[in-house]
Amino acid sequence: MQPPDSRLEEIRILENANAIKTTKNYAGLGKFTFDKDSMQFRPSIAGNVIVIVIIGFLIVPLPCTILFAKDHSHLNIGGVIIFCIMAVLLLTVGIRQLKDNNKLHIAVDRTGITLDDTLYNWGDIYATAILERPKSIYLTVVLKENAAYRLYRLTGFRVFDLFFPITLSKYIEHFKPTYAV
What we know:
- It is built from six helices and eight strands, in the order H-E-H-E-H-H-H-E-E-E-E-E-E-H.
- The strands form two sheets. A four-stranded antiparallel β-sheet has the order 1-6-7-8, sandwiched between helices. The chain has a four-stranded antiparallel β-sheet with strand order 2-3-4-5, covered by helices on one side.
- The mean pLDDT is about 75.
- It is of the alpha+beta class.
- Helix content is about 45%, strand content about 25%.
């Protein structure tokens, strides 16, 4: 096992993380046997869809029971109107969240790593790593200049692929030029 890189260890301490491993160590020995020019990853919408479905199941029964009740007082009708306004607001927020998640992406190719429309060229990257905190995992791109680094949260990408950091690390190592650290 290699001794920890001093810059990566410094980032781990600054970010109060449990561990930080290079993508090479995280990927392991597995290799890809395909020949793609690039790979793009988008967050999973499954979590948002599940939340919207649950909100739908909670919203639909209450107005129906109030509307079909035998006593149609002004209080019942007012409650239905307020409830419907709240339902529309909740669904609007849910749909906006889905659209915002659709803008997020990670792209890896022979030129570098693109995180939300910002390209980091392989020549500018000192190291790539996975930073682990208690309830979240981050892709860490450490740049050669000014000891700068960028953390990119991977939580939304992990809904069905529990091993997404390993998968991402394998793609990074596949596309990384051999001269990169």
